[in-house]
Amino acid sequence: MQVTSFKDLNPSPRILLGPGPSMVPARVLRAMSMPLIGHLDPEFLRLMDEVQQLLRFVFQTQNELTIPVSGTGSAGMEAALCNLIEPGERVLIAINGYFGERMYEMAKRYGAKVDRLDRPWGQVFDPDEIESTLSKASYKLLALVHAETSTGARQPGIQEIAAAAHRYGTLLVLDTVTSLGGLPVEIDAWDVDIAYSGSQKNLSCPPGLAPLTVSPRARTIIRNRRTPVANWYLDLSLLDKYWGNERTYHHTAPISSNYALREGLRMVAEEGLQARFDRHQANARLLWQGLEELDLPPLVREEIRLPTLTTPQLPGTFDEAAIRRRLLDEFNLEIAGGFGPLKGKVWRIGLMGFSSRRENVTLLLAALKEVLAAAP
Ligand SMILES: *Cc1c(COP(=O)(O)O)cnc(C)c1O
Fold it and tell me: Which of 31, 73, 106, 343 has its C-alpha lying 20 to 30 A from 87's C-alpha?
């Protein structure tokens, strides 16, 4: 086929109710289409300031080093780990789902001695059990996931866990990819050392930026490293020179993605954090109720269930992939399957950011009812 005969781009109007990306409001798409300016243009430098202020607001922090890392959520994860870890240091990763597992793999690549604390997928950690593990060795950092998108579980007690870590001289790294902008994340009140997120989940921007915030405690430790960070692109002391006072070139900032993030964050600020959390919770409740009525009860118990990602249990009596395919083909609805130990056992339904709307829940439940009734 001749490349010149490729057709115009015409993506279907999908309703994105999976684990991300979520739907992007027209305002954000319009912001992305604005004229490009340079990454050192005074207008862009001003926009960088605004993005940083907006990020501090959503993270609920005063941390000066708060930036959108170029790359998706995994770039934020990698930045957190590679900047704190020096070869041979001992770190602890709490693993109760796929993203904890990813942190474990990354930490090993930076030469850490990595211990793991495991919990079955769908369960969460008890702060006491974390504290007792921290007391057994000298750990540079503890990393854990606030909102496990692979299971739908929310880790409670972050403040207690951070306090326990600090009692043992350990830093706390928190994955807030599926929590930031959808449920409370209070970096300063909880005393988290590094948190990161992704633009395409509850912030409803296209994928490509990873909001990241670093406490003064962690920043000092990074500044005083004995060895250079093994990853040049994500080296926070270099990025700090571009996003901090110096404003010197490190790599070309993804200009249009930053336009989008600024607009997405502005929408969070206009809505207000509490109103936004309430909306996510109310729409999630509606979904949970509807799923119960369809005999697809959520896997995770309600006290630790994420409003942004629900995992209904499947009875195993129908071809779940075929049902998802019909939702996509006939209703333009995207939901996701489970994976790892939950493959074939759950679906993953996201109600994140702009996707968290009552009409989306109503449509999904009606579509599921119709498609399930027709399933062989
Ligand atoms: C989506 C996600 C990531 C990874 O983000 P990418 O944007 O896919 O790189 C990391 N952690 C959690 C909890 C996530 O949900």
Answer: 73
Ligand 1 atom closest to the CA of 147, numbered from 1: 13
What number of residues does the chain have? 376
Please identify, among 269, 288, 318, the residue that sits at the C-terminal boundary of a domain.
Answer: 269
Dist. CA 172 → ligand 1 center (Å): 18
Q: Are the C-beta atoms of 253 and 272 separated by less than 8 Å?
A: no
Atom of ligand 1 nearest to the CA of 148: 13
Residue 8 inside a domain? The answer is no
Going from the Cα of 200 to the center of ligand 1, the distance in angstroms, rounded, reads: 9
**Pocket-testing residue among 95, 96, 124, 177, ligand 1, by greatest number of atoms within 8 A of Cβ:** 177
Q: How far is CA 291 from CA 64, 255, 295, 314, in A?
A: 43, 41, 6, 11
Q: Which atom of ligand 1 is nearest to the CA of 146?
A: 13
The rounded distance, in Å, linking the Cα atoms of 21 and 14 is 11
311 plus 357 within the same structural domain:
yes
For residues 199 and 201, give the distance between their C-alpha atoms in angstroms, rounded to a whole number.
6
User: What is the reported pLDDT for 1?
Assistant: 74
Residue 225 has pLDDT above 90, yes or no: yes
Condensed to tens digits (0 to 9), the pLDDT of residues 113-157 reads 999 999 999 999 999 999 999 999 999 999 999 999 999 999 999
- Check whether the bond before 21 is cis (ω within 30° of 0): yes
Answer whether residue 105 shows pLDDT above 80: yes
Q: Is residue 5 part of a domain?
A: no
pLDDT at 268: 98
Which domain CATH number covers 187?
3.40.640.10
Domain that holds residue 221: 26-269
Q: Residue 375's pLDDT is what?
A: 83
Choose one of 251, 269, 287: the last residue of a domain: 269
The CB of 313 under 6 Å from ligand 1? The reply is no
Spacing, Cα 198 to ligand 1 middle (Å): 7
How many folded domains does the chain comprise? 2
Q: How far does the centroid of ligand 1 lie from the alpha carbon of residue 206, in Å?
A: 13
Under the banding of pLDDT at 50, 70 and 90, the label for residue 376 is confident
